[in-house]
Amino acid sequence: MSKYSLLLIFCLALAPLTLALTVELRAAPGAHGIAMYGQPALPSNFQSLPYVNPDAPQGGKIVLGNVGAFDSLNPFVSKGAVPWQLRFLSYESLMGRSMDEPFSLYGLLAETIRTPEDRSWVEFTLRDNAKFWDGTPVTLDDVIWSFETLGEKGHLRYRNFWSQVEAIEAVGPKTVRISFKNNNRELALLAGLRPILKKAQWRDSDFESSGTKVPIGTGSYIPRDFELGRFLELVKNPDYWGADLPLVRGTQNFNVIRIEFFGDQAVLFEAFKAGELSALREFNSEKWRSAYDFPAVSSGDVIKSEIPHGRPSGMTGLVMNSRQPPFDDWRVREAMILAFNFEFINETITGAEQSRISSYFSNSQLAMRPGSAQSPVLDLLLPFEADLLPGTLEGYSLPKSDGTERNRRNLRKAINLLHEAGWRVENGVLQNNQGLPFAFNILLRQGEKDYQAIVDIYSNSLNRLGIQVDIETVDDAQYNQRINALDFDITGFRRDLSLSPGNEQKLYWGSELSDVEGTRNLMGVSSPAVDATIDRMLQTTSATELQTAVRALDRLLIAGRFVIPIWRIGNSRIAHKEALRYPKTIPLYGDRGSSWFPHVWWYEEN
Fold first, then answer.
1. Measuring CA to CA, which residue among 11, 58, 14 is closest to residue 254?
2. Cα–Cα distance between 101 and 96 in angstroms, integer?
3. Nearest by Cα to 469 from 340, 349, 350
4. 151-158 contacts at long range (C-beta below 8 A, 24 or more positions apart)
5. Farthest-apart Cα atoms in the chain, separation
6. Could you give the angle at the alpha carbon of 596 between the alpha carbons of 595 and 600, nearest 5°?
7. CA distances from 114 to 16, 30, 32, 118 (A)
C-alpha cells in the first residue's frame, strides 16, 4: 500500500471527528438569551424588562376570580381541573419570555444557553443560586428527571416535545445537553420553557395522580391555603431565590394572590361590584359600556383600563367535531356557519361593538391575504390541490347576514348545502336517507353565560332548518372528562396564537394527535397539507418563509370550516381597584394570560 493510500485512509478516519469539531466550534458560546430568528433584543447587561417598573413597590394582596371549580393542584398531569394561574405563578423553567418580542428567551434557572447554528442540540448551564421552595438547590438530576417525567407521564402538551428528543445528558457540573432527532429550530427554545420540578419529592409517589399534593417548584408564589372548588391562596416566598434577576426585577410584586371560584360569570361580577375582588377582565364590550356604572366606578375607587396589544386574534367560537357524522362533511359544516347569524347575535349580545374574527391569525401580518392564493403561498398549497376544500385556493370569507333575525338568504344557502349532503326536511324534521333526524348536542361548561346566550339564539335558527339541538351544560369535572374523551358534537372553543407560531401548532391541528385522548386538536383536523405547512414553519430559518407557511396554514384552517368564529377580543379590558397600578409602557403582547397581569402590576395607595 502506497503512502498516499495510507494518507487517504487516515484522512477519511479523521473526517467524522473533524466534522464534529467543526459543529462544536460553530456553536455560539454560552449566551444570556436566544431568539427564534436573529438575536434577542436585550443585551447581556440588561437590568430589567423594558415594560416593567423596576422600582415597583412590593407588598399588598390581590384577589382574583375564576368561573368554575378545581379538584387538583398538580398542573402538570392530564387528570383533574387545576386553577389555570397556578402553572404560571408558582413554577419556573430554564429560560423566561419577554412579552415585548415575538419569541425571545432570557436566562432564568439557567444562566446561559448554547446551541450550534443548526440547533441540533442545546445546552443550559444552571445558576449556582437557583433553589426550590424548601431551600434545596436545583440540580441537573432535577432537570433531567423533569424532562423525562413530563415527557413520559405529564400532560399531553409536554409529550410531543419529548418525542423529538434524541438524548438528554449532563456534560458538566452544571450543564445539561439536549439533542434532537429532527430538523426543528424551535426545539432549542421550547426546551428552555419546560417547567423544572423537584425529583426527590416523587421518589415514593405517583406523579400521574391528580389531587392535593402540590409539586415543589422554584417560583416566587407558594400555595399556602385552599379549599377544593372554593379558593386558592398563594403567598410570596420571602426567600425567593430569583428576586434580583434582571428578568424578574419589577415583577411578582404582591405578597398574596388569592383566587376565588364562582358558579358563573354573573355571580363573579356581583362579587366584584361588592368589592370582594380586586380586578376583573371583561370580554363583552356592551357590558363594559353599560354595566360598569356602579358606585365604586363613579367614585373613582374602581378604574376601567383598556390595554392594547399587537398579537393575532387567535380563534374563538364554536368548534365542530369533524371525526364523526354529520360534521365529517364540509358541506354540513358550511351550512352550520351559514345558519349562524353573526350580525344579529353580535348586535344582541355586544351591541355590535366587536368585530368578527376573520381568520386564525387575523390582526397580524401572519394572516391569510384576501382573495385567491398567490405565490409563494400558492406554491406551498398546489401539491395538495386535489384534496383541498373549495375556497382554499380561490379564497374563502365568512358569510354575512342582513342583520335581521330571520337570516333568510343564508338559511336558504344552508338548506341547499344540506340537500347536497343527503339531508331532506320531512314533516318539519331534517333527516337523511335512512330516516334518521339531524340531531346533535352543544356541550357547554357551567357558568359560561356568554356562550349560553349565543347558542340560545343559534339553536332557534337551527330549529328553523328542522335540526334538533340539545344544549348540555355540565360542571368543570364533567366538561373536562367529556372534552378529553372527545365526547361532544359542538362546544365552545378558544385558541390563543402568537406572533411566532411553532410546535404548538402540531398540538392544535396536527394529524398525529387528532384522535388521541386529551388532544388539543378538538376539531379533529387530519390533513397532509396542514401537516406540511406546519413542518415548513418548524424547519425554516427565515422570518419571511415562516410568514408564508403561516398564511398557508391560516388559509387551510379557515377554509376547513371547523369553527364558527365569533367576535375578536381587541383591547383587553380590566376593571380594578384604584390602588392597583401598572407600568405606562405596554409590551407587544399586551395583557396576555398572567404574564402581564398580575405579573407586572403592583399595589400602591394614594
1. 58
2. 12
3. 340
4. 153/77, 153/207, 153/208, 154/76, 154/77, 154/207, 155/75, 155/76, 155/77, 155/78, 155/518, 156/78, 156/507, 156/513, 156/516, 156/518, 156/519, 156/520, 157/504, 157/507, 157/520, 158/76, 158/194
5. 99
6. 110
7. 22, 5, 9, 12
Percent helix / strand / coil, the chain, rounded to 5: 30, 20, 50
**Nine cell digits for residue 533:** 405547512
Which amino acid, residue 292?
Answer: Y
Cα(118)–Cα(17) distance, rounded to whole angstroms?
18
Cβ contacts of 17 within 8 Å, gap of 6 or more: none
Q: Where are the alpha helices (DSSP H) in 53-211?
A: 86-90, 140-153, 156-162, 187-191
In the chain the first and final C-alpha atoms are separated, in Å, by 91
Classify residue 21 by its DSSP letter: H
Residue in 414, 289, 445 with CA at minimum distance from that of residue 341: 414
CA distance 574 to 566: 21
Residue 56 DSSP one-character state: P
User: In angstroms, rounded to a whole number, what is the distance separating the alpha carbons of residues 530 and 461?
Assistant: 32
Q: Residue 594 — pLDDT band, cuts 50, 70, 90? A: confident
* Cell numbers describing residue 228: 377544593
* CA–CA distance, 322 with 363 (Å, rounded to integer): 27
Q: Are 204 and 187 in contact (CB under 8 A)?
A: no
Q: Could you count the other beta carbons within 10 Å of the beta carbon of residue 513?
A: 20
Element (H, E) at 533: helix 528-539
Residue type (1 letter), 109: L
Task: Give the confidence band of 347 by pLDDT, cuts at 50, 70, 90.
Answer: very high
Give the phi and the psi of residue 125 in degrees, each rounded to 5.
-110, 120
CA-nearest of 384, 457, 455, 467 to 421 is 467
Quick: pLDDT tens for 556-590: 999 999 999 999 877 899 999 999 999 999 999 99
CA–CA distance, 102 with 97 (Å, rounded to integer): 9
Judge whether 296 and 338 are in contact, CB under 8 Å.
no
pLDDT tens-digit profile of 274-330?
A: 999 999 999 888 899 999 999 999 999 999 999 998 889 999 999 999 999 999 999
Q: Is 499 left (phi over 0), alpha (psi -120 to 50) or beta?
A: alpha
Cβ-based neighbours of 172, under 8 Å, separated by 6 or more: 125
CA 125 from centre of chain:
28
| Cell 340560545, residue located | 456
d(CA 323, CA 189): 33
> Which residue has 423596576 as its cell numbers?
54
Q: Please list the residues that pair with 123 across neighbouring strands.
A: 114, 177
Query: Cβ(312)–Cβ(367) under 8 Å?
Result: yes
83-140 per-position pLDDT tens digit: 999 999 999 999 999 999 999 999 999 999 999 999 999 999 999 999 999 999 999 9
Name the one residue in this structure whose C-alpha cell is 363583552.
284
Cβ pair 117, 27 in contact under 8 A: yes
**What's the DSSP call for residue 199?**
G
Q: What is the DSSP letter of 137?
A: B
221 three-state secondary structure: strand
82 within 8 A of 69, measured Cβ to Cβ: no
* Amino acid found at 370: P
